[in-house]
Write a structure and sequence with these properties.
It is built from 2 helices and 4 strands. By secondary structure, the protein is α+β, with helices and mostly antiparallel strands. The protein has a 4-stranded mixed beta sheet, with helices on one face. Strand 1, helix 1 and strand 2 form a beta-alpha-beta unit. The radius of gyration is 13 Å and the shape is globular. About 15% of the residues are buried.
């Protein structure tokens, strides 16, 4: 019996991350998924950003839609403290 270990790679973004920076992060995440690793996308809130958590949920929804062709949602967006995260697995 062969045991396969799935590595979990993480990309971190902020609610006010620019479009170009977000594209770069998503491309990096896409490489991780194509390599066979799981991907954890974390939105970090600082200070008053935490008052607008819906912006973080929208950002994760956008990432999920972009990567939907090559990934499956392992764990839906979950808020823990000041971090909101989503876990994706390769198809």
């Amino acid at each position: 019996m062969e045991l396969t270990i799935a590595n979990v790679k993480e990309i971190r973004i902020r609610p006010n991350t620019g479009k170009h920076d977000l594209i770069i992060k998503i491309n990096k995440g896409q490489k991780f998924l194509l390599k066979g690793d799981k991907l954890k996308v974390t939105v970090m809130f600082r200070g008053r950003e935490f008052l607008r958590t819906e912006a973080g949920y929208q950002l994760l929804e956008q990432v999920k839609n972009i990567l939907s062709e090559i990934s499956v949602v392992d764990k839906e967006p979950n808020l823990q403290g000041r971090r909101l995260f989503l876990i994706l697995s390769p198809k």
